[in-house]
Amino acid sequence: MKSYQGFLIDLDGTVYKGTEKIDEAITFVKELEKRKLPYLFLTNNSTKHPRDVAEKLKEMDVPATTEQVFTTSMATATYISELKPGARVYAIGEEGLHFALEEQGLEIVTEDVDFVVMGLDRDITYEKLAIGALEIRKGATFVATNGDVALPSERGFLPGAGSLISVLSVTTGVEPKFIGKPEAIIVEQALEVLGTSKDETVMIGDNYDTDILAGINAGIDSLLVHSGVTKKEDLAKIEIQPTHTMESLAEWTLE
Amino acid sequence: MKSYQGFLIDLDGTVYKGTEKIDEAITFVKELEKRKLPYLFLTNNSTKHPRDVAEKLKEMDVPATTEQVFTTSMATATYISELKPGARVYAIGEEGLHFALEEQGLEIVTEDVDFVVMGLDRDITYEKLAIGALEIRKGATFVATNGDVALPSERGFLPGAGSLISVLSVTTGVEPKFIGKPEAIIVEQALEVLGTSKDETVMIGDNYDTDILAGINAGIDSLLVHSGVTKKEDLAKIEIQPTHTMESLAEWTLE
After folding, report:
1. N or C: more exposed end of chain A, with fewer CB within 10 A?
2. Cis link prior to A182 (omega < 30° from 0)?
3. For this structure, is A12 an active site residue?
4. The pLDDT value given to residue A142
5. Are residues B145 and B73 in contact, defined by beta-carbon separation less than 8 angstroms?
C-alpha cells in the first residue's frame, strides 16, 4: 500500500462506537504515533470543545492532543474568519461552536449580523430560530456546520444538525453554505493544519456519504473501514469507490 | 353573482391584518349574519383555542361565535379521530392543538403512540423533536396541521409550522399528512360543520397558495380578495384562476 505521510481520521464509527473502543483502530493510531506520522481527527460533531474530544480519546487509550482534533465548528469559524475577519456572527449551536468562533476572534452578537451560523443545538428555542430567520432575511450569510440529518444515540436516531438547520432554510428559502464532511472545505482546512499535501494524505472513515465523499470531493485518497455506517452491500451500489476498503484497520500494514 | 348558501372565510389578511380591521370584510360578515347565511371562519392558525379566536373577532366588531371558528387543529383532531377513535397521540403544538385533540377524545401520550401530530410550537425543545422522531421511526403515523413555512409578525416573517415540521420529515425521511389549507381535507370537514353542499359554498381568502387552492382542491368555488398576500400581478402568472377576484369584499352584492 502507498506510504501516506498524513492521515485524516474520523471518530465515531471509526475509532470508537459511542462509548465502545474499536481496538484495531487504536492499535493503528498508536503505530502512527510511534512512527511520527502526522494525523488529525476530523469530526462533524460541532458541539464539543476539542479539548474534551481529546480527553475522551485519551481515556480510551488513543494517543491524542487537543491540537490533533479538528471539528467542523473549527472549520466553520476558520471559513467565516477568512471571508471577513472579526465578523459579527449570530450563532445557534453548543459549546464547541461558540468556542471555535471566539477563538477565531469573531464577535458573537444578536443584531446587525454578517453571518448566521448554525450547528446542532440541543437547547434550541423558537426565539433562536426566529432571530436566525430574521437575520438571514435581512441579508446575513447563512453557514451551517454540517448536514447530518440523524444523530445516533442509545435511544435510536435523534434529529441531527441538518434537520434542525432545515427550519431556517425552509422558512427563508436560503440554502446554507455547508462546511463539514462531505464538503471539500473541511478537508482542505484539515490539510493546512496537518501540513501535508493532497497526494500524500488519506481520509479514513466508516461513512461513505460523509468521510469518503469528503475525501473524493477534496481530491485525496480515501479508506473506508466497515466498522460503522457503510456496509459491504451498500458499497456495491456506489459508482465512485473509496481508494481502499477494509474490514478493520488491522489489515493495514504501515511500511 | 351566484347566490351562495355557505361561506368559508379566511381570517388573517381577509377579515383583519394582524391587529388592524378590514372594514369591508366586517361589513360583509355583518350582512351575512343579518341574512342568516351560514358562515365559518377557516384558519391555518393551529395555536389558538377557537373561543379566543371568536373573542378577538368580537372585539373587532365581527359577529362570531366559538362554533363559527374552525381551526386546522380541529380538522387535524377530527381526521385522526376518524382514522382511529381514542388513538394515542404525541402532540407537538400549542394550546389550540392540545384542546382540539382532547375535545375529540384522543389520548395525549409520550410513548406507544399511534400518531405524531405537529403544528406550530413556539415552546419547541430538542426533547419534543427527539420523541417525535423516535416515534415516527417506530411506526407512528405523522400528521401535520399545516405547511405554512413563514409566520407574519411585527418583527418580520418568523418560522412557521411548515419549517418546524421539516425537522421531523428531514430526520426521519417520512413526509407528514398535511391537513390545513391548501389541502381539500380541511375544507371537506368545514362543509360538514357548516352543513352546506360543495356547489352552494364559496371559500373566501387573500392567499392563493392556501385559501384559493384549498377551494380548488376541494372542488368548491373560490373568491380571492386582494387585501393580503396575493397581489394582482401574482395572479397573472397563475393558470387556474379563482372563481371570483375582488379588490375588497365591498364589491360583493348579496342578492
Report:
1. C
2. yes
3. yes
4. 98
5. yes
